[in-house]
Amino acid sequence: MSRIANYCPICGQPLIEKHHAGRERPYCTSCERPVYFDPKVAVVVFIEQDDKVLLVRRGMDPGMGKWALPAGFIDYDESPEDGAIRETLEETNLNVKIDKLLAVYPKKDNGLADVIICYSASIIDGQAQAGDDADDIGWYTRDNLPELVFYPSITLTTLWRDGELESY
Ligand SMILES: [Zn+2]
Predict the structure, then answer these.
(1) What is the C-alpha to C-alpha distance for residues 118 and 67, in angstroms, rounded to an integer?
(2) What's domain 41-161's superfamily in CATH?
(3) Which among 15, 71, 108, 128 is placed 20 to 30 Å from 137, CA to CA?
(4) Whole-prediction pTM value?
């Protein structure tokens, strides 16, 4: 996602471009401070049960109609683990516990996040049901995977299919 800032969020003055802290940044000459563009952080949750992985079908673009692991943005004041648990509940109606940090990926495709933190998780309770950004949900075996979207979901699911996720 490109970032644009035309006006100072504090005083409302037009911003200039200025070299500050290592790169060109929008800068307010009145407040004498830059505007920092913080990365958007998302969490992805890998849930395996009975040799199947839980996937959700995206109900909106990017990637509408394709499948991905449950995922979403974390709030600024939320821990990544709590965000992963919340997003999983919103998209799958399942209460999960986080088991392990699997990977941290940078943005590599048209996904909406800049930093993606990926966890494995186990179901505590609930009946799987699609919600929020997801319009369908399903359990998939290694030899029956649907068309996936987004680098983290494609990478982790492929590793799992090939038996390489355990040692990842
Ligand atoms: Zn200002």
Answers:
(1) 16
(2) Nucleoside Triphosphate Pyrophosphohydrolase (3.90.79.10)
(3) 108
(4) 0.89
